[in-house]
Specification:
The protein is mainly alpha-helical and 414 residues long. The chain folds into three domains: 44 residues; 65 residues, no CATH class; 250 residues, Up-down Bundle (Receptor-associated Protein). Helix content is 73%, strand content 5%. The chain has a three-stranded antiparallel sheet. Strand 1 and strand 2 form a beta hairpin.
Amino acid sequence: MPRFKYTARSRTGEKVEGVIEAADRRAALVQIERQGQVPVSVAEAALAATAKPARRSWFSFERKTPRAARMKIKEVLLLTRELSDLLASGMTLGDALHTLSRRKTGKAQDRLVEELRDEIIQGTSLSEALSRRSDSFPPLYVSMVRAGEASGQLAEVLERLSAHYERVQETREKVLMALIYPAIVLGVGILTLVFSMIFVVPRFTAIFEQLGSSLPLPTRILIGMSDAFVKYGWALLGVIVAATVLVRRYLATAAGRRAWHRLQLHVPVIRLIVTSNAYIHFARTLSSLLENGVQVLQALSIVEDTVGNVVIAGAIRDAREQVTDGATISGPLAAGKVFPPLLTDMLAVGEQAGDMSSALKHIAKRYDDELNRAVKILTTVLEPVLMLLMAIMVGFVAVSMLLAVFDMTNGLNV
């Protein structure tokens, strides 16, 4: 029977090493768990002793180092909810992570949970382990976990994080759902126009040329556009792709991002959605951090990275620099002229009452309602505008063709 060399941790956290006999690696893991230990590494003894570095192959496409596991926001939300429930039931953190690591989903989160479990068993704090995986766990998450560890209320903090990310996900889905229908309508309209220019108009053009009659001006314009589309379509596509790449690169720069975010704050309907979403993130994130004992300056630094707009983030950064001088938060935010007076006034009332967390929750609710109204306005305005745009595009093609047909019909009657 194969022998397996293992390293594990006891219930008290002590490191245990040994060798056991088992039919396979899975059976070895079961035996170790029955002994009341949490396995860290298990390898067949013969293979562990004789293993040699693999020879390099010129035709090998394997990565030298595995890609770091990364979790999506929905996966982080699910992990946080489950971990909170397990801790609330009385499990230790190591046992809870070990329980979650045994559930195989076939996704990258499996390896990440196993890595977290191993680091926790080796004595690393959860906040420190999470901070090494900033792609999955943002500073807000790490700071709240660190505060929960310091206060001994990790389960409660994880529950609040779950609620926070659920609200963030709901807000994001509201905006996305508002844009899906207009995007579909616009995409179908563009595809219809391209199909008409490439396949429909050239067929009518051939018929008109055979008849040799003079064509109305709209029909000549349409035929000219169709010819240009057919002859120079690839060049036009190349120009569009190149322009898209250049714009994306410009928006990736600090100046481009600032210009784009500043433009968003001046477009009537879009401005309502962008600002409402930013104010919701500001209020909810700051409220959650302050409730969990995070210092004001550190909380503002984290909030600055979560609002999603560099102009609004700049106003928060300026306010944070003034808070170090003993000023309140509402005063510098009001002086920056970026946050609306309603928000800063509500925040000032919370500061005077000594209950900023409650004031921030009221602010979040107020602008959540504002976001709902803005999204409704956007969909209400976009639908008729897009329908009118499609009617103009398709109608121009149809009218141009019909004018030519009517002219030829009149000529035949004469």
